[in-house]
Prior knowledge:
This protein is mainly alpha-helical. It has helices at 4-18, 21-41, 51-74, 78-92, 101-115, 123-134, 140-157. The chain is 76% helix and 0% strand. Helix 1 runs antiparallel to helix 2 (21-41). The radius of gyration is 19 Å and the shape is globular. The model has no long low-confidence stretch (mean pLDDT 92).
Amino acid sequence: xxxxxxxxxxxxxxxxxxxxxxxxxxxxxxxxxxxxxxxxxxxxxxxxxxxxxxxxxxxxxxxxxxxxxxxxxxxxxxxxxxxxxxxxxxxxxxxxxxxxxxxxxxxxxxxxxxxxxxxxxxxxxxxxxxxxxxxxxxxxxxxxxxxxxxxxxxxxxx
Length: 158
């Protein structure tokens, strides 16, 4: 299989041919972010990122876009929101398929049962396990919102 770097290089060439500005901009940003992480990891010679590290870089880039979208939306800058949304959509093509809320809830229910969580106080134990299982496939903030919701409901029911 092609490495992420090779895939980005191929996709960059295709975007150049297609004169796809958004894709060019986004792929260049991703390549720069990966390069930055490689330099940070480099001890002496060359550094090759593990697939996990590459995934972390992609997720961080996606998260930056999500946060920018919120800020620009709050500031009423729809023009900038649109630019960030375009980039986010492209970054997500390189991420593993994202789980739906229902899929996240199902995993959380299993974890809650397994660790015997009874209330929001058990949030830490649930989240630790949840992020280990869903890393790369779900936004941490969303997982935490859904976990809190499920745990509050369980607390209320007991």
